[in-house]
Amino acid sequence: MFRRRRIVRKAAERAARFPPISSSAAGARGTGRGCARLQPNTLIRVERCAGPAAWSYNGASLFRAWLVLAAVGVSAARGAAPSYSSDGIVNASDYAPGPFAPGSIVSIFGIDLSFGTLGLTADNTTARTLPNELSNVRVYLNNSLAPLLFVCPTQINFIVPSNLRPGTIPLRVVRQGISGPEVGMTLVDAAPQLFKSKDGYVLAQHGGDYSIVTSDAPARGGEVIVMYATGLGRTQPYPAPSEIPNYPGKVVSELKLTIAGLAVGPERIWYAGLSPGMAGVYQINVQVPDNLDANPEIRVSMAGQSSAAGIKLRTQPDSGEPR
Questions:
Q1: Domain boundaries, the chain
Q2: Looking at domain 2-187, does it have CATH number 1.20.58.760?
Q3: For residue 263, how many other CB atoms are within 10 A of its CB?
């Protein structure tokens, strides 16, 4: 038992050192003031348990995740119960610890979580609904089944059911009828976290053509960019548990944004809410302030919770005309 706990702890420690999301992305369509429409819109798979894996949208990769594993191989011991702890439950966007919000994408690290590796496919996401079981694995939160995105022996990615309320709730993993321990998980109204690249920059697109914001094509003062996040909480309208929303929905809680430590005026935040076609993913459309230094820190705050410090926005200093 001591060895199992040590392995789970090491998995969580490794997760904290390796950012999960890179900035490769699919093309998109839309307008800066509306919602980005990533094309195609259906989340279908995670490719591998070990090493880089892609969350794909009909074959066009939007996010590329580093699925960090404990050094215990890729097969579960037959008959052994799933093993994990509350320390191994982290935000999937940047592996930050809780608290979490309903609708957040969350990862569990442990051992013996499943007998195989399986992500989303066109078959198990029918009728714009995420599955509650993958590879005979289920995740229960306060006895509600969580929508699943990916399972392998050492990691599970799931979405916190949208109908849960704030408070400390029990979580347990059940694999082929064998239950792991019940551990606590804290939920709050909103717990914003930004998706970031492996080098610490927010995942963002230019609002004019939805190309990716990169060092060669940085954001410029005056232009509208689209950033991606999770954990922004309730929206209006609000998707049902397991639903893949294909519609916009603005956040209910007040969202505050700072760039380089300075508050961004609400008139510059054109939209914050659901990202149509992606479960658990929100987008923030913001007009970049003028006269920024290169690569300032960017943070989101809601309901007393803030996104992780140190995430930066790629910008061009002393920018001229908007892109």
A1: 2-187, 193-306
A2: no
A3: 12
